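Help needed: design a sequence for this.
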């Protein structure tokens, strides 16, 4: 009896919120005013599929889904306090997880066999899932049909975005985090660059090795930075902090 009451109220709540959830997914998967970086990234994935003779469209679909909706949108839906200055009560957290799960299912290309024992989050939107998957498929297809973005245009767009947010981020702390990742995987990265003709044409392997040699030099080896640098918002352990800023 308790289960029947629970399911009835759950379905009523789903009916109340269904339009808002549909509007959210339609906004996320709208191909109007797609940022240049999204178009550039998706074209890169299509190009890699052709280069490596990957003819299964579900593979590229999975790349795009993992790169944008599943990595970015699902995270924001489940954690709205990352973006907004709000609290996330426990009772709301479960509702947000259902919405995030619906988005994840919409990006899937596999049809899951649902039974009465399946999670309620999947059963709630089972009838709407084909509509949501059509939104995702149309989104990827329409972006692929738009005019490609060359490297110069992409570079100009990134530079403009960087200028727009000038002074809002701590550059040296961000660079230090990138360097730690680079230092950890430097051998694999250098091997990949040496085997890529475009990277060779831009002399990226040599430039990367020069950068690593500079970072390992005595000039950048010291880490005993004064505590006053913390007040500047920089990582006090950053090896990318110029000496003249101390």
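Sure. Designed sequence:
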């Amino acid at each position: 009896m308790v289960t029947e009451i629970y399911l009835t109220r759950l379905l009523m709540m789903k009916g109340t919120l269904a339009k808002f959830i549909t509007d959210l997914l339609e906004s996320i998967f709208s191909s109007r005013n797609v940022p240049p970086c999204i178009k550039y990234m998706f074209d890169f994935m299509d190009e890699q599929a052709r280069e490596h003779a990957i003819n299964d469209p579900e593979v590229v679909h999975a790349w795009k889904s993992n790169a944008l909706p599943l990595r970015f949108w699902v995270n924001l839906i489940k954690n709205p306090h990352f973006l907004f200055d709000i609290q996330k009560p426990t009772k709301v957290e479960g509702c947000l997880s259902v919405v995030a799960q619906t988005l994840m299912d919409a990006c899937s290309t596999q049809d899951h066999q649902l039974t009465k024992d399946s999670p309620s989050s999947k059963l709630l939107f089972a009838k709407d899932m084909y509509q949501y998957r059509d939104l995702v498929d149309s989104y990827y297809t329409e972006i692929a049909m738009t005019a490609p973005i060359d490297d110069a245009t992409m570079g100009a767009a990134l530079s403009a975005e960087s200028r727009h947010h000038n002074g809002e981020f701590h550059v040296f702390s961000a660079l230090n985090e990138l360097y730690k990742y680079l230092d950890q995987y430097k051998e694999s990265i250098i091997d990949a660059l040496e085997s890529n003709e475009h990277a060779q044409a831009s002399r990226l392997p040599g430039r990367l090795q020069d950068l690593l040699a500079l970072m390992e030099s005595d000039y950048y080896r010291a880490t005993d930075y004064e505590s006053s640098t913390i007040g500047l918002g920089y990582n006090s352990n950053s090896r990318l902090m110029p000496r003249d800023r101390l």
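The chain has two domains: 2-145, 169-245.
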